Amino acid sequence: MNPSTSTRGHIHVGYGLGKVMEDEKPTSPSSDSPDDEPVEKNPALEVEIQEQVDSGSKEKSPSKKKKTSSKRKPKPIAKRKVRLAHELPSKRRRAIKEAMEDHKAEHKDEWDRSSGVKTHVLMRKRIKPGTMRSFTIPLLDTNLGDSWNIPITVINGSRPGPTVTISAGIHGDELTGPSACSHLLSNTMTDPVRALDPQHVAGVIRILPIINLPGYRNMQRDFPDGRDLNREFPGRIKGSTTARVAYRVWNDLITGTDYLVDLHSAAKGRSNMPQVRAYLSDAHSNIIAKAFGIEVILDSKPPRGSLRRVAMEHGIGALTYEGGGADSLDQESVQVAVNGVLNVLRTLHVIPGNPTRPKFRLLASGSTWLRASEGGLLDMHVEPSSVVQQGDVVAKITDPGTPGLSVDIVAPKDGLLICTATNPFVTAGAPVGHFLPLAKHLDLVLDQCDEESRFIVAGSEEEPVWREEDIDEISLEGEWSGGSVDAEWRNEWVSNGAGSESGEAGEEIPRRRTKKKTNK
Ligand SMILES: [Zn+2]
User: Fold this and answer.
1) Which of 4, 486, 490, 503 is the most buried (most CB within 10 A)?
2) Quick check: 452 pLDDT over 50?
3) 395 C-alpha to center of ligand 1: Å?
4) pLDDT band at 106 (very low <50, low <70, confident <90, very high)
5) Ligand 1 mean position to 275 CA, how many Å?
6) Distance 478 CA to ligand 1 centre (A)
């Protein structure tokens, strides 16, 4: 069922053994399946998608010896090929096309600019048109103990339009989302004439920066009862603590939303390159996934109980953004998140301006985890967004208990690492890298890499918009002669310049220019 590739690992120091490293679909051990995706929690899903095309030729677990593997019938290459863009499986492409065609007929009257704008009401708080309001909402109904008041900000635009919710901190130790939300809520965004000025907004923007507040304070992913909120939606009013929280979040904070952007990071011990996850045959999700404006989109059905899944089932266009890792702040991932949210809002015409777009998109229908075949300490040779070629060493494992011996983990194909381990301690089977094989278009990806073969995600290199006020402003004295900027530049040193009034004596006036000329 689980297709897996075997790749030769290297054991050095003369043992001459050809040990087999495994890169395989995750077998979802609960300890290392904490991402926000079926890729981890329900690994069969991505396989399912691939098997639709792969005519179901099943593969046994990888053999231990290279000898035997050469005897096996060669697997069809298509089996493990991750398809890009137009190469998505034909069944998926058809489903996506049909969904997008059906969508064209849709129209919501209440978004018409002529329909007039209303006061937005959320949990009995009233937000007037053209204003922004921040308040807290209790996650639990209690008379005793902590009710966990979480912050929320609602921007109600001065014109009608869709309601877009930005959620973050569902996993308490993932800080990319909370940081991105705090930047979105900063004055550089919400002041008059800025990107999120309520007067210029059409529709409603709800921002939930830290949903798992107790987890955030304790730097923990789960709620205090040990449950993962992102597997409990839509929740139950009389269920477990986390189920009650899920019920409150879903029924009181998300309902009424047209689009949802859920911001995440990798779980502890890993780091993600910026990527979007969405089910592309859901038209609304497709639109915002592409609107986000970055290259890597994983086409995946959301796991049961996740906010994305429940949202999608209720007709809400939903995407999960992943960037950076838990307990850390990768500023590039934060910046990509902020840009992505603004791009989504621009595409939906909630805010003015044109969204930025990537040069190309990698629409992946599957991915692979590279795993350690041995336990020990990891020396990673790559980072999230590293592009590797078949046979490149991705990481080296050594063990202090077995001096002189090391094992290489090598790239099974050309591809892109969308997630890598940051925790150096590995046991046999531990995931080391989340790998997106690139059957074609490697040149396209390499063209957009830095000198160390790391892929540069669209928008990650721009100056962060929220730091705008840090830009130095230098006043240059002078006056426009005749009041026109196109006219002659006049200053003190012009009239002092060797008494020349011809204006032709260029070399005498600006001293630096004179120097440069002599250097030449
Ligand atoms: Zn998460």
Assistant:
1) 4
2) yes
3) 25
4) low
5) 13
6) 55
Q: How many domains does the chain have?
A: 3
pLDDT of the residue at 285: 97
From residue 462, how far is each of 307, 338, 339 by CA, in Å?
31, 12, 10
Neighbours of ion ligand 1 (CB under 5 A): 36, 171, 174, 264
Tell whether 255 and 267 lie within a shared domain.
yes
Instruction: Tell me: do 182 and 328 sit in the same domain.
Output: yes
pLDDT at 19 over 70: no
pLDDT of 68 > 90? The answer is no
Report if residue 471 sits inside a domain.
no
Within 279-414, strands assigned E span: 296-299, 317-325, 362-364, 368-371, 376-380, 387-388, 393-398, 406-410
CA 474 / ligand 1 centre spacing (Å): 43
List, for residues 164-196, the tens digit of each pLDDT value.
999 999 999 999 999 999 999 999 999 999 999
Instruction: Give the distance (Å) from ligand 1 centre to CA of residue 29.
Output: 17
Looking at the structure, tell me whether residues 389 and 324 fall in a common domain.
no
Query: How close is the Cα of 451 to the center of ligand 1, in Å?
Result: 30
Is residue 2 predicted with pLDDT exceeding 70? Answer: no
What is the 297 CA–ligand 1 centroid distance (Å)? 16
Cα of 56 vs centre of ligand 1, distance in Å, is 32
Ligand 1 center to 424 CA (angstroms): 21
Percent pLDDT > 70 in the chain is: 73
Q: What is the rounded distance in angstroms from the CA atom of residue 188 to the CA atom of residue 262? A: 22
Task: Say how many Å lie between the CA of residue 345 and the centre of ligand 1.
Answer: 22
Using CA atoms, how far apart are residues 85 and 388, in angstroms rounded to an integer? 20
Final residue in a domain of this structure, among 439, 454, 487 = 439
Q: Find the 128 Cα to ligand 1 centroid distance in Å.
A: 33
Does the structure show a pLDDT above 70 at 340?
yes
Range of the domain at 44: 4-89+365-439
Domain final residue, candidates 362, 393, 423:
362
Does residue 460 fall inside a structural domain?
A: no
- CATH code of the domain containing 237: 3.40.630.10
Strands (E), 315-375: 317-325, 362-364, 368-371
pTM: 0.77
Rounded Cα distance between 249 and 475, Å, is: 50
pLDDT of residue 15: 28
**CA dihedral sign of residues 52, 53, 56, 59:** negative
Q: What is the Cα–Cα distance from 395 to 409, expressed in whole angstroms? A: 5
| 61 CA from centroid of ligand 1 (Å) | 30
Quote the tokens at residue 294: 């970055």
On the question of pLDDT at 233 being above 50, the answer is yes
